[in-house]
Every structure is written in structure tokens, then in C-alpha cells.
Design brief:
The structure holds 2 protein chains of 2 kinds. By secondary structure, chain A is α/β, with parallel strands linked by helices. Chain A contains 13 helices and 8 strands. Chain B has 11 helices and 13 strands. In chain B, a hairpin with a 2-residue loop joins strand 12 and strand 13. Classes of the chains: A alpha/beta, B alpha/beta. Chain B: This is glutaminase.
């Protein structure tokens, strides 16, 4: 199974000659820098990106084998518990984290808050997450992401949302899931939704794709490219509710390219051990024996919230459009 | 004859290499008349998978993560055996180059494990963070030599569009020594690879020569730190971004992201030659 690339479950191969986004992102010499932006996302594949709130946690994440860390002021579980407006983190804290580790550092900006993005670019973070976990700053607009030299990752619940973000310049996509719950059900829902929509689009004629593009509010060219590839045209990670090695491997087997873990690590009993286990699970996601071994004796998982008993207003995934 | 090429699939852009290898395999086959060769390209995550390979690519990714996962998956020693004891053809790109170096600096606090095989010191994230990542045209002399025979001259002369992502460079060529790189071990914040002796049975087929510079990136001297005259002189000649020593080849850029199979074609031909040499003896 592992070596079978004609795998019918889901096309996971992302061809290197994808052209999406190129035309709209050119530097002074008329050349695209989208390749360089998506290139870093490709280097993160098969890896785990961990939420951290200080330099000490960042070092634990790096030592556990994280491919990148996401610097933020409060993990989603605390944002949920404490309420209030959640904003971009203090640049001082982000810089401390950047100084503490040698792996890439990402940071979150509020949806539509292009000045927070300018600030993050000025600090020199490696990736910006325009994230629904923070309180949105614009009721209608997402950030125009192509002009930045820093690449962006954005969340999605379905194919239309993913393609709108890519069209705005996102070089990487993640499922939204339901952050800060430790409940993987929404991440699975979003991944399965995207996959099902793509396989439906694959059997459509151009004329039918035009109707679909209108219905899901996605650009036709990007939709056509996606249908041809049989997968999203950029790297796609899982996020929002992943708490165990088994959750991580589940998302990988569903066709994700890698995994974000937010509250799941530093809200659990033994953060370092759990982080290492999730890293091993993402590499060996197709090997149940390894998964069984790394799942053993991890201590307490984060307590978690059942998404099914939450009210719609408490969900973060509805932020953004 | 089957030739099995593995791509280390612990983390990173391993699938991109497999895509280009498939393309390159077809080109190599079409160049040869009457070829009996069959290429097998496979992802490698375990020792058993590695043992079945004739040659290996270590892809780009996060070298820290690949190194830690290799350690915890009991793959570090099998990899050192593959590269340094049995001396099978191995190519590392970006993170792969770092892992194949005998010495590296700017690693994470507490250092990182290296496989080794190339007598060089690499400087991790040499150009800086992601905003400093870039593309550049490279003239790679080995590609032009390789394509002399009946190939379209224009194709072989065309510069290679190289993509550098948080890339390392070869900061210093090291002398060949028996055992570990002692002098490097003394330097602060530099990590070194452990020494593994070459298997005597392969010694007659492999000549451990000095490191060969296979490519340089001109005109980026500003980023080089001022730490010794010798290195400054090196820097003026351009940054070293491709090297070879015996069975090990390393590039600091990412041919797997370009869709240009020329380096993969060249490397597969090197692999065929290396296997041929061993068969003969």
C-alpha cells in the first residue's frame, strides 16, 4: 500500500508543474514568486506544526521533531475558555520564539487584518496564518495575499472556500476543523467534504464545471485545475481538533499532507511525549504497529469539548467565508 | 536488470522526487538502445525498505525533524551503513545535503544528528528566513558534459532554474581524515557526524577522492559571515551549492520542485555506472 502511487483512495500526489496563482504574483522582473511560497509548504509535508505560546514551548516542539511552530498568545482552548477579542500576538513574543528555534516560525493574523500581516512580514515570520481562531477584523474581505513576500496558509471547510483562499494568494490550505476542542470530527468533516467535492468535479464537463464554479463561488480556472489534478493544487494540512497520534494518522490516511496540532499538545499531561508520538504517527501513518507502539502510555489527553453539544455561536469555523 | 531507487520518506518533499525520477527513468531508457533495465522507485521508511535499495535520495524537508524521526525510527545507523559503509550512491537535496555533511553549523540548540559522507561543513539557513528564499539560474557544467551525445544542444546548455528555500550552503571543504572531523568538533556550535569505516569488499570499487565542487552560485557574498580569511576567499568565488565525493552527491537547492528532470537523468546515469563498476569487479 505504502508504495502504491496509483492508490485509488485519494490522489495525494501534487505535481510540481501546477500553475495556479502564478499569473497574478510577479516580482519586478516579471517573475512569479509563488513557486518559492508553495515550495516551503512542500518542505513541511509529512510533518507536524505545533502551536506554542512561548520560547520554552517552542524548544520542546522543536526537540519533538516539529517541522514548524505556530506562535500565538493563547492556544485556541484558552481563547475559547477566556473569551474576549483574540488578536495577533505581541511581536516581542514572536521574536523570542524565532530566536529560540531554527525551524520555521508561523504566526496568526486576524481574518482581513492586512496591517497585522504587514507587521508579521516586517518581523520576518516564515508563514502567516490568516486564522478564524482569532476574532475576524473584516466582515467581508479576506487579505489579498499575493503581494506579500511571506506565504500564507488559510483554513477551509469545503472546496469553494479553499479555492477562494488560493485565488487570493494562499500558498497552503488547512482544514478548519473546530480549534480548541480536541474533537477531530469537524476536521474529518471538512477533509471528507473537500475530497467528495473534488471527485464529483472530476467527472464534469467544462460546461458543468462552470455551473459548479458559480454554485461554490470558486474561480473557474482553479476549479478546472483542481478537477484535473484530483486534489487541491496546493499543500493541504489537517487542523482543528487533533489530539492523539491516531487522530493525526486518520487525517493522513484521509489524504492530508501533514498536520497542525494546537491545544492538543500543551493542554495534555505529558506534552513532550505526546508531541513526539504525533510526529512518529504522521511519518508512519500507514503502519498500525508503529501507531500502536507510539500511542502507548501517553498520559492524559486534553479533556476536550464535544462539538455536537456546542452551540453554533461558539464555533470558530463559521468565521470567514 | 532491476534497479531500485529509494527516496527517504520520513518527512518532506519525497513525493516530488519520485515524480521526477519516473520522468527521468523514461528519458534514460529512451536514450539507451535495447535496455533491459527496469527502474523501481520507492518510498523508504524502514530499514528493510532501505536494504532493498541500490541507491537513495534524501529529500528536502526540515533537517531537524528528519534527523529526529530517523533516530526514533531506528534509521540513523542503517542510513550511515548505506552511505558510509557499503558506499551506495546517495543524493541529498537541501535538508538531505545537511544530513550528508560531516559537519554543520546553525543547528538547533543541542545540535542534531548527522549521517555524514561528504567532507564538507554546511551552514544551515545560510540566506536567512523564508522571505530570503529565491530562484536563480545556474550554469551546471556537469549537465553540459553529460548531454554531449546526440542530445539537443540547446536543452543541455540551458541554465538550470534552481529554487532555494531557507537553503544551506557548503561553507567549507574539509580535508579527508580517518575517523571524525576532529578540528570541526572543536569549533563552537558546529556538529559533526560519527565515523564509519568503509566495508573492505567495496573498497576496490570506490575511490575516496577529495570533495568535488559541482556548482556555485555567483554574487551572493554579502550574506557570508566574517569568520576567517580562507572562507572569505571562498565566498568571493561564489557560494558552493553542489558537491560530490565518491558515492555521495549533494545540492543545496531543490531540483525536485522545478519539473526539470535533467539533474535526475544525470544522477540515474551515475547510478547505472556505479552499479556497473561493482558488477565487473
Amino acid at each position: 500500500m505504502i508504495n502504491d502511487h496509483s492508490n485509488s483512495r485519494m490522489a495525494t500526489e501534487l505535481p510540481t508543474r501546477t500553475t495556479n496563482g502564478d499569473a497574478t504574483s510577479q516580482n519586478a522582473s516579471g517573475e512569479s514568486n509563488f513557486t518559492v511560497k508553495t515550495g516551503l509548504a512542500r518542505m513541511l509535508k509529512g510533518g507536524v506544526i505545533m502551536d506554542v505560546v512561548n520560547a520554552e514551548q517552542a524548544k520542546i516542539a522543536e526537540e519533538a521533531g516539529a517541522v514548524a511552530v505556530m506562535a500565538l498568545e493563547r492556544v485556541p482552548a484558552d481563547i475559547r475558555a477566556q473569551g474576549g477579542v483574540a488578536r495577533m500576538s505581541d511581536p516581542k513574543m514572536i521574536k523570542e520564539i524565532m530566536a529560540a528555534v531554527t525551524i520555521p516560525v508561523m504566526a496568526k493574523a486576524r481574518i482581513g487584518h492586512f496591517v497585522e500581516c504587514q507587521i508579521l512580514e516586517a518581523i520576518g515570520v516564515d508563514y502567516i496564518d490568516e486564522s478564524e481562531v482569532l476574532t475576524p477584523a473584516d466582515h467581508a474581505h479576506h487579505v489579498e495575499k499575493h503581494p506579500y513576500s511571506v506565504p500564507f496558509v488559510c483554513g477551509c471547510r469545503n472546496l469553494g472556500e479553499a479555492l477562494r483562499r488560493i485565488s487570493e494568494g494562499a500558498a497552503m490550505i488547512r482544514t478548519k476543523g473546530e480549534a480548541g476542542t480536541g474533537d477531530v470530527v469537524e476536521a474529518v468533516r471538512h477533509m471528507r467534504t473537500v475530497t467528495a467535492e473534488i471527485s464529483r468535479a472530476q467527472n464534469m464537463s467544462d460546461a458543468e464545471l462552470r455551473i459548479l464554479a458559480k454554485d461554490i463561488q470558486a474561480p473557474f480556472d482553479l476549479l478546472k485545475e483542481t478537477a484535473k489534478l484530483g486534489r487541491l493544487p496546493v499543500v493541504n494540512f489537517a487542523a482543528g481538533g487533533i489530539a492523539t497520534p491516531a487522530d493525526a494518522a486518520l487525517m493522513m490516511q484521509l489524504g492530508c499532507d501533514g498536520v497542525f496540532v494546537g491545544s492538543g499538545i500543551f493542554k495534555s499531561g505529558d506534552a513532550s511525549k505526546r508531541a513526539k508520538a504525533i510526529v512518529q504517527a504522521v511519518t508512519h501513518y500507514n503502519d498500525p504497529k508503529v501507531l500502536a507502539a507510539v500511542s502507548e502510555d501517553l498520559g492524559e489527553a486534553m479533556v476536550g469539548l464535544n462539538v455536537s453539544s456546542m452551540e453554533a455561536k461558539d464555533k470558530m469555523q463559521g468565521r470567514g467565508w | 536488470m532491476d534497479i531500485t531507487i529509494g527516496v527517504l520518506a520520513l518527512q518532506g518533499a519525497f513525493n516530488e522526487h519520485i515524480q521526477l525520477l519516473r520522468e527521468a527513468g523514461q528519458i534514460v531508457a529512451s536514450k539507451e538502445n535495447n535496455s533491459q533495465k527496469k527502474w523501481i522507485f520507492k518510498e523508504v521508511r524502514t530499514e528493510a525498505e532501505l536494504t532493498s535499495c541500490d541507491a537513495l535520495i534524501i529529500p528536502g524537508g526540515e533537517s531537524t525533524a528528519i534527523s529526529l524521526v530517523a533516530q526514533r525510527s531506528n534509521m540513523l545507523e542503517p542510513l550511515r551503513h548505506f552511505v558510509k559503509v557499503t558506499r551506495k550512491p546517495t543524493w541529498g537535496t537541501c535538508a538531505g545535503l545537511i544530513l550528508l555533511a560531516e559537519a554543520a553549523n546553525q543547528t538547533k540548540r543541542g545540535g542534531q544528528e548527522l549521517i555524514g559522507g561528504l567532507d564538507v561543513r554546511v551552514n544551515r539557513n545560510h540566506f536567512g528566513r523564508q522571505v530570503e528564499s529565491f530562484q536563480a539560474n545556474l550554469d551546471l557544467p556537469f549537465l553540459q558534459k553529460a548531454d554531449g551525445d546526440g542530445q539537443d544542444v540547446e536543452t543541455s546548455q540551458k541554465p538550470f532554474r534552481a529554487i532555494f528555500i531557507r537553503a544551506p550552503i557548503v561553507e567549507k571543504l574539509l580535508p579527508r581524515v580517518s575517523g571524525i572531523q576532529q578540528d570541526e568538533a572543536k569549533a563552537e556550535e558546529t556538529v559533526i557526524a560519527p565515523s564509519r569505516a568503509m566495508d573492505e569488499s567495496v573498497a576496490k570499487d570506490i575511490t575516496l577522492a577529495d570533495v568535488e565542487i559541482m556548482g556555485v552560485l555567483p554574487g551572493r557574498t554579502a550574506a557570508v559571515k566574517d569568520d576567517g580569511m580562507e572562507e572569505k576567499l571562498d565566498a568571493e568565488a561564489g557560494d558552493i551549492i553542489a558537491v560530490r565525493q565518491a558515492n555521495v552527491f549533494g545540492t543545496s537547492f531543490h531540483p525536485e520542485l522545478t519539473g526539470d528532470p535533467r539533474i535526475h537523468v544525470w544522477w540515474l546515469e551515475q547510478v547505472v555506472e556505479a552499479i556497473g563498476r561493482r558488477k565487473k569487479s
